[in-house]
């Protein structure tokens, strides 16, 4: 039986995910794809997807692709759902259709979709699973600081839909009773993946959790409620980078961030009881600027005196500068014996995705500074940028 791999990514990155993967596994073939979700037919010699993990930094998560179901939409129901002929859905239309709970959750199309999904999953004979992840294919870029999260449509109809589908999976003994859909999975667990492609279409896959981001539904780190409003999107970015890369930031350690205004990531780091030095010519939000564990150096990264940041534990950059400029700045700092951070978290801006062709070169540069462990990921909270994390051990 042929094996298929699915990979999820930020909306718009599909062509790059495809070309990256075909470079990695030239014998693979493109199969079904939609915005935010790409599948590949693996070579006939493949026994499952083991050994075929995508290495692309644009891959959010991956697993075995099993099937997709689409239920017919009668003209009047399609109209009710807002669907227009066979037109593919953009994120906006998705959100709109699901914002009306009655129209989405209670429609006949949705009822049929749940039934068809469950019977397809039963027919695949691969269950039961330890849990299920159900997400909406990506179509959204992360909003500045909001609860709107790509890959997780928070529209009103969504929760009702998730609970109905979960109940149907539980009734068919495909997932254990009492397991909530979209819980973070544990390493080693087998998860049923369901991605809503359109209001009348679901993709079905599965995965065994081997990587940190495979614990999250659709590879999307769950949001947590914040006690105070996050100052910027960078609040979520740093939280995601630390969690994904498994960095051990400890209370009392010192983090230096180049490009720290207005202060979202500093806010998160201060919440973790770290000492934070923010380097930025721009103003820092007063809540951060007056925090006792925060120091603002109002200068450009290149103008910092090494003395001011000596003995820092972590060095971060989120400056909106070209990647090579960022790397030159960091190289200059870490070449000094008094600046020996345990790790680096660098946002590399990509005004043009062609810049990603230099990824290997960037990686080698960072490795040469004494950071052999390097990982990259386009975070859920990254826009046109990627995150590079490097550690010494
Ligand atoms: C995306 S914002 C950073 C967001 C910030 N990390 C946060 O947590 O809110 C980019 C910042 O880079 C700063 N920047 C641009 N060039 C810089 C440089 N040469 N050195 C330091 N900061 C720089 C800008 O002033 C801007 O505040």
Word description of this protein:
This protein has 393 residues and is α/β, with parallel strands linked by helices. The protein folds into 2 domains: 4-219, VC0802-like (2-Layer Sandwich); 234-391, 3-Layer(aba) Sandwich (Rossmann fold), CATH 3.40.50. 28% of the residues lie in helices and 22% in strands. It contains 11 helices and 14 strands. Strands 2-3-1-4-7-6-5 form a 7-stranded mixed β-sheet. Strands 10-9-8-11-12-14-13 form a 7-stranded mixed β-sheet, with helices on both faces. α7 (234-245) crosses α8. The longest helix is centred in the first third of the chain and has 17 residues, at 108-124. The protein is globular, with a radius of gyration of 22 Å. The two termini are 41 Å apart. The relative contact order is 0.11. The model is unreliable at 84-88 and 141-154 (pLDDT under 50). It binds S-adenosylmethionine. The site of S-adenosylmethionine has 21 residues, from α8.
């Amino acid at each position: 039986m042929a094996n298929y791999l699915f990979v999820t990514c930020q909306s718009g990155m599909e062509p790059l995910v495809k070309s990256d993967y075909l470079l990695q596994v030239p014998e693979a073939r493109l199969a079904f794809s939609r915005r935010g979700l790409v599948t590949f037919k693996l070579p006939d010699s493949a026994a499952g997807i083991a050994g075929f993990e995508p290495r692309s930094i644009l891959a959010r998560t991956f697993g075995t692709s099993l099937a997709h179901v689409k239920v017919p939409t009668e003209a009047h129901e399609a109209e009710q759902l807002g669907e227009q002929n066979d037109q593919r859905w953009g994120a906006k239309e998705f959100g709109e259709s699901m914002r009306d709970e009655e129209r989405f959750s209670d429609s006949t199309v949705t009822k049929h979709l749940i039934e068809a999904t469950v019977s397809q999953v039963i027919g695949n004979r691969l269950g039961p699973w330890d849990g299920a992840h159900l997400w909406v294919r990506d179509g959204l870029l992360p909003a500045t600081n909001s609860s709107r999260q790509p890959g997780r449509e928070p529209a009103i109809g969504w929760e009702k839909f998730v609970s109905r589908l979960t109940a149907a999976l539980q009734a068919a003994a495909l997932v254990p009773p009492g397991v909530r859909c979209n819980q973070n999975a544990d390493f080693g667990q087998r998860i049923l993946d369901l991605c809503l492609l359109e209001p009348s279409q679901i993709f079905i896959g599965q995965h065994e959790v081997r990587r940190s981001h495979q614990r999250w539904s659709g590879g999307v780190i769950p949001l947590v409620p914040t006690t105070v409003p996050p100052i910027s999107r960078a609040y979520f970015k740093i939280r995601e980078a630390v969690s994904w890369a498994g960095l051990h930031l400890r209370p009392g350690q010192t983090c230096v961030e180049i490009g720290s205004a207005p202060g979202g990531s500093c806010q998160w780091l201060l919440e973790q009881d770290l000492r934070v030095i923010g380097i930025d010519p721009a103003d820092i939000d007063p809540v951060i600027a007056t925090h006792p564990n925060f120091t603002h150096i109002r200068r450009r990264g290149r103008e910092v005196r090494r003395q001011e940041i000596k003995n820092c534990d972590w060095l971060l950059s989120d400056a909106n500068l070209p990647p090579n400029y960022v790397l030159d700045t960091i190289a200059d700092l870490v070449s000094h014996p008094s600046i020996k951070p345990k790790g680096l978290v660098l946002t590399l801006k990509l005004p043009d995705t062609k810049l990603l062709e230099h990824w290997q070169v960037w990686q080698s540069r960072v490795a040469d500074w004494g950071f052999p462990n390097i990982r990259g990921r386009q975070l859920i909270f990254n826009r046109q940028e990627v995150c590079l994390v490097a550690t010494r051990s």
